């Protein structure tokens, strides 16, 4: 193999598994260390800069970082990164004086944001400090979009959402709430310098062709619409027997909301096996904790009505059958099940819908009737129109919408300043030695043996009695500290300098997880076979040095490195050093500050 | 900041056939200087015992005084250990071995502990062919007392102090050969490929097995002009051959050119394959071994690898004809068979 090029920021970024997996590339280990140090404001601001909604995400994030966490490969469970973010948000003081200053003198450019969800708000957050004037349109009465209408208050208290939405709106965004945009043509006619579409995926899937659908309509609801009605207090109760169709996170929110609104026999019914449910494992766990049963392999067949009123649902019991290619089909077993019910909530998927964008104004639509959006620039074929969040390619999650918002803001800024939108700014990063002295590092290299902390919950009965009572209490100080100490500091990199190495093997001998090897160079495949413990995780890189004096090379498998620093500790010549790699993704602001 | 070894190990590292993980063979975290060759030897001992599926509690590690003699703390934490008096490791090992011959005796010593204060003891333990592995961690200096030249420092070798050593050095391999050791080897701590199979062979050897391991002292004796430094040793090593240790019952798939290889069968059935670098050198010939050490030394090089092997000699227990049961397992009935047996014995002598 060729020597690893560590000057490419992508190499060390990839080692920081959590940050790399995060769509917004939040510097996770950095803020976790700040939490351990009790510097909650600093930890919060690192988050705020990167993911805009730390308090919201600390409760509701899809956590792509956690399955990626190196700790999960070393022991049973990853670090509770998401809930640590909440620790920072819960314990911070007033941070408003740290928010960026908004120039009084505007730059003369005006932007329209359609939809007030996380993607649009991120665009506003990134562009307001640069002097843009921004109009935000939303058909709801408050900002937040999906975060407000579809995440129940028992998971995300309104105060937390309001606070973080207001940090942005208070920058001077002109809000045009309760205004449904029905024509893109009209918006374009207002001569905005750019228009950002962040309207989400607002249309819930229906089962229009199922027998009884029309007759039972009064008690058959689209999940996301029903959740929105609950959030805005248009709906305050539901029948005693409720069937929730679907196995995603919306279904979990629907069933848990239903038991808080008077549902006594609430069931989740999914077509496929439980193992294939799309909901995050922890959200399924939360529903089960509230004693909500999940029925698998039940395919909806008909709504049963009596005298024009819904009385139940009929299901085909199916069985998953796999063909030679591993393709799964659900084959009916011939058995039918009838479940009596008063209400049905359908949470079986969401679609994008753009009836309000005229097809003759220069925005190209693809075969699926979705606008053609560039994956890098988020630009449509009409150069001043940009799309992001769920509106771009279908339902994802809040953190992805934020990531889209950052990129779209860069494009909008470049577009407005007549720069090439394809010329993307590089991330900001640095690599700094953590060595203080003998056995003394700037980071806490000691590896905690503690198992993952469990977030304490409000008593079940109390929680179910109050729709707005937050179920999770969050970590207290000591739990937050303990959990923070579980972080392996993957951003503190093991950096090897070939010329200093005397090949004493001290690092190889001391490494507790056998990742360091001094062997003859070979192809990557062969090296992965030949090192002490085979490098079977192909997602993880091999770090290869230049050729050493004995013609061998140092090969380090990054896979389960604990970043404990013992290699550097035991190195007599300083060939190994522990260096902190801090990367901030580019934003519209960092693009501007560059020469 | 403290300096603590994490408790996690590679989740995919395997257990050996005896069911132990590598962690069962580890000891406390080393307090020797970073980069010390002794730590590499400790790691080689750990790996050898792991590979040989030895039960850690069936091993006794015994040492004297010095940096080398501290190392038993850093490997085989579950084994028996005795950190004895300076230079007295051989007599303590002899005593232990006499009492319980069922354990594996791993003697660890240094150049000072063996070639100076312990020379008398060393000579006699070799002569008696005690069944043990004797490892000298040889760095040519007294590291614990700030690096003075030791008795194995070669004449002209320059340590950190910068003054060439004025005296002739003692070659411990030659001494061991002369005193009748059954297995004699010299290794380098920086070459585990060679060191590990030789430690395994020494463990399986019945009788006295001696390994002189050149182990650089990074703090006091790792200058370019030191004959015990990493650089010098790497440039001047001349191996007797490459070694492969083949455990018992393993199908041998290695293919050696005729005439240049030698297979040594060890007492447990495992085998040592030596790919010799010089075809006319006979490993079982003591005179030839002596000759070879001298020849290579004349070329300003260090002969490494397995130098001599002969397991036809009886070990101490064989020579003094002890019973098969370890002495510490003999009960009062066997040790005091009663007055009738005594009377019969006395009658025979009348």
TrEMBL record, chain A:
InterPro entries noted in UniProt: 4Fe4S_Fe-S-bd, 4Fe4S_Fe_S_CS, DPD_II, FAD/NAD-bd_sf, FAD/NAD-binding_dom, Helical_ferredxn
Catalysis: reaction(s): 5,6-dihydrothymine + NAD(+) = thymine + NADH + H(+); 5,6-dihydrouracil + NAD(+) = uracil + NADH + H(+)
Entries under PROSITE patterns matching the protein: 4FE4S_FER_1, 4FE4S_FER_2
Cofactor: FMN
EC number: 1.3.1.1
SUPFAM superfamilies found in the cross-reference section: 4Fe-4S ferredoxins (SSF54862), alpha-helical ferredoxin (SSF46548), Nucleotide-binding domain (SSF51971)
Domain 4Fe-4S ferredoxin-type: 492-521, 551-581
Quaternary structure annotation from Swiss-Prot or TrEMBL: Heterotetramer of 2 PreA and 2 PreT subunits.
Protein name: dihydrouracil dehydrogenase (NAD(+))
Organism taxonomic ancestry: Bacteria, Pseudomonadati, Pseudomonadota, Gammaproteobacteria, Lysobacterales
UniProtKB/TrEMBL annotation, chain B:
UniProt GO BP: cellular respiration; small molecule metabolic process
Keyword annotations: Oxidoreductase
GO MF, one annotated term: thiamine pyrophosphate binding
Gene3D superfamilies, per the entry: 3.40.50.970
Keyword Oxidoreductase: yes
Ranges of residues in domain Thiamine pyrophosphate enzyme TPP-binding: 65-213
Pfam families to which the protein is assigned, alphabetical: TPP_enzyme_C
UniProt key word Oxidoreductase: yes
Superkingdom as given in the UniProt entry: Bacteria
Name by which UniProt lists this protein: 2-oxoglutarate ferredoxin oxidoreductase subunit beta
Native source species: Marinicella pacifica
């Amino acid at each position: 193999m060729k020597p690893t090029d560590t000057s490419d920021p992508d190499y060390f970024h990839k080692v920081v598994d959590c940050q790399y997996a995060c769509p917004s590339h939040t510097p996770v280990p950095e803020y976790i260390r700040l939490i351990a140090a009790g510097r909650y404001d600093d930890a919060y601001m690192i988050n705020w800069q990167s993911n805009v909604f730390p308090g919201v995400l600390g409760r509701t994030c899809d956590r792509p970082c956690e399955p990626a966490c190196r700790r999960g490969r070393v022991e049973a469970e990853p670090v509770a990164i998401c809930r640590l973010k909440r620790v920072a948000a819960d314990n911070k003081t007033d941070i408003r004086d740290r928010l960026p200053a908004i120039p009084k003198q505007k730059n003369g450019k005006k932007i329209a944001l359609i939809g007030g969800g996380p993607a649009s708000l991120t665009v506003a957050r990134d562009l307001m400090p640069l002097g843009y004037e921004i109009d935000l349109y939303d058909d709801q009465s408050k900002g937040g979009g999906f975060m407000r209408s579809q995440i129940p208050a028992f998971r995300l208290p309104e105060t937390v959402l309001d606070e973080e939405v207001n940090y942005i709106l208070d920058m001077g965004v002109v809000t045009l709430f309760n205004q449904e945009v029905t024509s893109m043509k009209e918006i374009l006619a207002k001569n905005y310098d750019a228009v950002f579409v962040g309207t989400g995926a607002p249309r819930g899937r229906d089962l229009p062709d199922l027998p009884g659908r029309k007759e039972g309509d009064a008690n058959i609801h689209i999940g996301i619409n029903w959740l929105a009605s609950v959030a805005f207090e248009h709906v305050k109760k539901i029948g005693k027997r409720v069937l929730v169709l679907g196995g995603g996170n919306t279904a979990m929110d629907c069933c848990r909301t239903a038991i808080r609104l008077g549902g006594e026999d609430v069931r989740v019914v999914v077509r496929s096996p439980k193992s294939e449910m799309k909901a995050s494992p922890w959200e399924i766990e939360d529903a089960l904790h509230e004693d909500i049963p999940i029925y698998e392999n039940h395919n909806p067949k008909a709504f049963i009505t009596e005298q024009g009123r819904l009385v139940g649902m009929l299901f085909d019991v199916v069985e998953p059958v796999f063909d030679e290619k591993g393709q799964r089909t659900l084959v009916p077993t011939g058995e039918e099940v009838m479940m009596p019910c008063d209400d049905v909530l359908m949470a079986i998927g969401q679609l994008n819908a753009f009836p309000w964008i005229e097809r003759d104004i220069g925005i190209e639509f693809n075969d699926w009737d979705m606008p053609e959006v560039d994956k890098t620039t988020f630009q449509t074929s009409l150069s001043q129109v940009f799309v992001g969040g769920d509106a771009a390619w279908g339902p994802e999650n809040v953190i992805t919408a934020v990531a889209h918002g950052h990129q779209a803001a860069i494009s909008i800024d470049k577009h407005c300043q007549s720069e090439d939108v394809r010329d993307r700014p590089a991330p900001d990063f640095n690599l700094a030695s953590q060595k203080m002295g003998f056995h003394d590092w700037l980071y806490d290299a000691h590896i905690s043996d503690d198992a993952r902390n469990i977030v304490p919950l409000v008593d079940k009965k109390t929680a179910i009695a109050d729709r707005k009572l937050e179920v999770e209490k969050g970590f207290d100080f000591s739990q937050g500290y303990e959990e923070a100490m579980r972080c392996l500091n993957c951003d503190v990199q093991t950096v090897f300098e070939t010329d200093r190495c005397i090949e004493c093997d001290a690092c190889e001998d001391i490494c507790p997880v056998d990742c360091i090897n001094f062997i003859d160079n070979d192809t990557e495949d062969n090296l992965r076979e030949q090192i002490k413990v085979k490098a079977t995780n192909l997602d993880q890189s091999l770090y290869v040095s230049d050729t050493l004096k004995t013609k061998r090379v140092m090969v380090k498998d990054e896979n389960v490195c604990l970043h404990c620093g013992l290699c550097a500790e035991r190195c007599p010549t300083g060939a190994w050093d522990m260096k902190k790699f801090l990367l901030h993704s580019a934003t519209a602001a960092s693009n501007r500050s560059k020469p | 900041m403290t300096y603590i070894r994490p408790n996690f190990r590679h989740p995919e590292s395997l257990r050996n056939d005896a069911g132990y993980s590598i962690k069962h063979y580890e000891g406390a975290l080393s307090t020797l200087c970073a980069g010390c060759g002794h730590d590499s030897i400790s790691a080689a001992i750990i790996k050898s015992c792991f590979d040989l599926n030895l039960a850690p509690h069936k091993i006794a590690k015994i040492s004297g005084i010095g940096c080398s003699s501290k190392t038993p703390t850093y490997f085989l934490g579950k084994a028996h250990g005795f950190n004895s008096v300076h230079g007295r490791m051989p007599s303590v090992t002899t005593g232990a071995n006499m009492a319980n011959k069922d354990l594996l005796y791993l003697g660890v010593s240094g150049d000072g502990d063996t070639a100076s204060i312990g020379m008398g003891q060393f000579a006699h333990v070799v002569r008696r062919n005690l069944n043990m592995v004797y490892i000298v961690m040889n760095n040519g200096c007294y590291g614990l007392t700030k690096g003075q030249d030791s008795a194995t420092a070669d004449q002209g070798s320059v340590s950190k102090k910068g003054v060439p050593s004025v005296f002739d050095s003692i070659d411990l391999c030659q001494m061991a050969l002369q005193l009748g050791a059954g297995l004699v080897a010299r290794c380098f701590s920086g070459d585990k490929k060679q060191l590990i199979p030789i430690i395994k062979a020494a463990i399986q050897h019945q009788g006295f097995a001696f390994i002189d391991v050149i182990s650089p002292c990074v703090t006091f004796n790792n200058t370019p002009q030191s004959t015990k430094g990493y650089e010098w040793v790497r440039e001047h090593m001349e191996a007797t051959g490459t070694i492969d240790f083949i455990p018992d019952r393993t199908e041998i798939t290695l293919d050696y050119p005729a005439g240049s290889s030698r297979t040594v069968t060890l007492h447990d059935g495992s085998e040592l394959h030596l790919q010799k670098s010089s075809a006319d050198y006979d490993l079982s010939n003591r005179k030839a071994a002596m000759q070879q050490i001298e020849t290579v030394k004349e070329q300003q090089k260090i002969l490494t690898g397995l130098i001599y092997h002969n397991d036809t000699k009886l070990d101490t227990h064989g020579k003094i004809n002890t019973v098969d049961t370890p002495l510490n397992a003999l009960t009062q009935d066997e040790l005091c068979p009663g007055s009738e047996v005594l009377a019969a014995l006395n009658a025979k002598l009348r």
